[in-house]
Amino acid sequence: MQIPDSLKTKAEEIIFRYPEEHRVSALVPVLFEAQRQLGWIDNDVEKWAAEFTGASSTKVREVTTFYSMLRRQPVGKYLIQFCQNISCSLTGGLELQQHVQQKLGIGPGETTEDGLFTLKYVECLGGCSWAPMMLVNENQYFQLTIEKLDRILDGFKSGNPVPPDEPTPLLGNIAGES
Amino acid sequence: MSTKQALLLSRNFAKTKQAKIDVAMKHGAYSMLKKAMSMKPDEVTAIVKESGLRGHGGAGFSAGTKWGFIPKDKFPRYVCVNADESEPGTCKDRLILERDPHLLLEGALICAWAVRAERIYIYIRGEYFYPAKVMQQAVDDAMKAGFIGENIKNSGWSCSVHLHTGAGAYICGEETGLIESMEGKKGFPRLKPPFFPAAVGLWGQPTIVNNVETLAFVPRILEIGPDKFAALGTPRNGGTALYSLSGHVKKPGVYELPMGTKMKELIYEYGGGIRNGNKLKAVIPGGSSSHILTAEECEDLPLDFESVAARGSMLGSAAVIVIDDTVSIPQLMIWLTRFYAHESCGQCTPCREGTDWLVRLAHRFADGWGTRKDIDDMFELADSIDGKTICALGQAVAWPTKSYLQKYRHEFEALVK
Ligand SMILES: Cc1cc2nc3c(=O)[nH]c(=O)nc-3n(C[C@H](O)[C@H](O)[C@H](O)COP(=O)(O)O)c2cc1C
Ligand code: SF4
Ligand code: FES
């Protein structure tokens, strides 16, 4: 893939965060940003990231294979990351997994034929008190039910996304005071 | 004590636009940084030590003591804020990042002042897109306001703050894995001892790694004083804590309560008790890495580091996962072992191979193939990981696994073919 100027600009911004002699520290954040802009990391992106940060090409490959959010193949337009860890599974997550699979006609790791959705089961997303939760691309959704899930997926499908739960709603004893 | 508890750390979470610097400053943000900067760095460290503030990332180490470990003459020094929050059950740092980012920044800056650090990195997990966005804005605003950067408030001290995004790896929450990751590598934890990050950390330099919540408490300690802070909790467990309550309670949520609040009080008085009229079966008290406690073991249990340890488990990140009597422990075992197998960095053979085998054995019970020998094999496998690995992820899987097998062996036996 071509490295767009928008990525080069952002990469300069990122590398500025580290001392010049430690440019390689920017590797993961730069790859992460590349993926945000381009959707995935191909050989050209790896090569560019290696040159840009001064990392060897083997180092870069080690990194792209180690971190589970970095991917070396494209995904659908909307990547669903659904939490499969304990708190979510205890509170209805398993039924929701079934539901998503049926609704989209795909299993985990698969992409719908229209290229719209990819489904991925992931570990704890740090939203356990608001379980079950998922991310769709960069959007966080909490307290999922079948009804809410349908609304969210239909929203993306029709180009009318349901606004994400930002900020995370207050629950517990910190909710009351203001 | 079931009356409404006054909030300390989280008292501004519900305020509108608290993430904006002008609003935060109206509520006192950065006034404690100014106060700290009027003191000698070592005085600040001494106050934090006196307060009894313990690490809220999992290990519960005294924050002030850690700051005191920085070697005398070695510069530059760094502070890494651990915002990796990925211990299953834990979801409190998210709120600080989203709801009161300037409180965290102020705490991190006070820490940097205390240890004379020149850079602060906030290592934030890749999945925290929104929290990272809020945090970046806060950093930009604090820089414009002159709390970050060159010659802060004409003190002659300069300190920069930067975000560093992770990309999906639980092991990067382990402090040396975090540092390796920050150096552009795989998050392979380092062997410690000999070197702890305070002496040899980021780029070989002295580095303080503290959890988000730990640092966010620091401005409050300066505000109310170390004695008052210490008095809120139990001996050697200063202040309050953000308990992440999840699972089968009627009112899950993040609760800020004094250290040493009773488990049953958290579950029944704050959490509203068990959902759907079911019965309490067990509790995971400190994130998925902690030993499971039976309902009986939760009786009269103060949630502080020593008390939970005395009951054979750990407070960890104070992530309390409540489990009712509809849950089968062998099922829980599948979720547990799958997580650690996925997150093992693969460096140590016992952890890499052992976690994989544990998952396979756990599945045998669910699939109806389990044998009595498998139960013993699982226990032995867990034992062969325990204490024989580079980092604490080994224990983090071995301890709960053993506790499930010990306390609920009959449930595995009932599934034996
Ligand atoms: C496998 C593993 C994962 C960890 N994950 C986190 C984490 O996500 N966040 C965190 O603050 N500490 C985590 N820790 C604890 C850190 O190693 C370290 O103790 C902590 O960041 C120190 O800060 P504190 O003293 O303020 O708690 C983890 C430890 C281990 C062994
Ligand atoms: S114990 Fe596991 S996670 Fe920790 S260093 Fe060894 S292999 Fe990696
Ligand atoms: S278990 Fe699902 S968000 Fe933590």
How does this structure look, described?
The complex is a heterodimer of chains A (178) and B (417). Chain A has helices spanning 5-15, 27-38, 43-53, 57-66, 86-104, 146-157; strands spanning 78-83, 117-122, 134-136, 139-141. Chain A is α+β, with helices and mostly antiparallel strands. Chain A has a 4-stranded mixed beta sheet, with helices on one face. Chain B has 17 helices and 9 strands. Chain B has a 5-stranded mixed beta sheet with strand order 6-5-9-7-8, covered by helices on one side. A 4-stranded parallel beta sheet of chain B has the order 3-2-1-4, with helices on both faces. In chain B, a hairpin with an 8-residue loop joins β7 and β8. Chain B starts with 20 loop residues before the first helix and ends with a helix. At the A-B interface, α2, α4 and α5 of A face α5, α7, β3, β5 and β6 of B. The complex binds flavin mononucleotide (FMN), iron/sulfur cluster and FE2/S2 (inorganic) cluster (FES). Flavin mononucleotide binds at residues 55-59, 61, 82, 84-87, 170-171, 173-175, 209-211, 214, 391-393, 396 of chain B.
